[in-house]
Amino acid sequence: MMATSASALLTTSLGATPLLGRGKVRDLYVVGDALLLVATDRISAFDHVLATGIPGKGKILNQISLFWFDLLAEIVPNHLITADVNAYPASLQAFADQLEGRSMLVERAVMFPVECVARGFLAGSGWKEYQSAAAVCGIPLPSGLEDGSRLPEPIFTPATKSEGGAHDENISFARMESLVGAENAGELRRLTLALYSKAARHAEGRGLILADTKFEFGRTAKGILLADEVLTPDSSRFWDAATWKTGGAQPSFDKQFVRDYLESIHWNKRPPAPGLPDDVVERTQAKYLEAFRRLTGRDLML
User: Are 27 and 268 a contacting pair, CB within 8 Å?
Assistant: First the structure.
């Protein structure tokens, strides 16, 4: 389909279904004892949601998460109940056009107040921290690494969850222990690195590098669950293995076209956020679709 911003779903409305909140991308509803996550086509950059969206982006992200939930279920249970709209409660059936392909009904969980980040390569905030401290989150790293370098082994670098659009802040493991307890911290680190390891191997087999990613976990009466989105281009850095070269920022399967455009118009990164021209929308949609195709081996019809 031709990607024009007019066909993007920016906001959902589900009648009497209680809205719990809207994030940068997802709308969250209360459905009995469960939650309904709906991935819209909103796109954010520099901590602001833009005036235009990327048609189908929510469906792409939702389907990527479902793929990973299935692939990684042997490592840790997840919060998915069903993504089949026909199996949703009757009260939601009238809104199938908003929900099909881009939603999932999930268990409610008490979320841990940390982002669980795994890094196999040096990039982003990790690269910035390494330049000043030769370490990331208190983990010493060898000298001589460059932007984009593969680390000797994957590392666990937790972060606080941001509020109100602020940046997440990298924290030490000791700080994480103080927030969630030593036993939980140790288990979340183990799970994060196990998930990263399996996902990185899969990505490598598809010609992609999983440079880093972040997971969110919650707890129910049954134990720890993997929650939220999983290993999408919005929460992870995927690079093309064929073009990877250390010494600078790598092209990613995400919203790089959007960031580049916003830099080119010298936006001051304050509200109101601008819209995007159709060519940037089309190229960004194509990049997300390519990520889906490379990761899953399937095409997605929007």
Answer: no
